[in-house]
């Protein structure tokens, strides 16, 4: 019988696949090496233990006939599940002992990332007519993210009156020289590849044209 193949490793892992690689056995057992058989099984945590164990079923052969290469792409796996793999060398005399991968492989998209977290969302803003209104959020995100500001469902773009500031996790929308026409619902949408978060609030503008008191213009709270 041949020796078992050299160390089995996962060279690349994606959202639904893994690429495996191994080396030839040190000794071929005196017979012609016909190739390799690769097997897998799903891994589940051991009961009462901290490590990963084996799945409830046995090993499933991924190559019904021996393959000549020392590598294999295994497709159609399930993301967020762990799998164990092993490879067996075959010659004219039979099959070797298996070479088992060192640890279970978790199938995960390497580009995946956690969605952003709003450490502080939008608060209601009140300002006097002709003054600036400042909306502010604090974002906790370990990957690059985008912020889209909207007014009444319409996306805002920078202009002479609309200023957008983004410094690390602190993001601000500044509406300069506020008027009654700026009373509306304002929204901040924060997104990355992992997902998005939305925060909403309203703007109150105090008018200076009422007699004896200030008039308040307030959008009804968002439901």
Automatic annotation (TrEMBL):
GO cellular component: M band
Pfam families: fn3, I-set
SMART domains found in the cross-reference section: FN3
Residue runs in coiled coils: none
A GO BP entry: sarcomere organization
Domain Fibronectin type-III: 4-110
Keyword annotations of the record: Repeat
Gene3D superfamilies named in the record: Immunoglobulins
This protein's name: Fibronectin type-III domain-containing protein
Protein's organism: Protopolystoma xenopodis
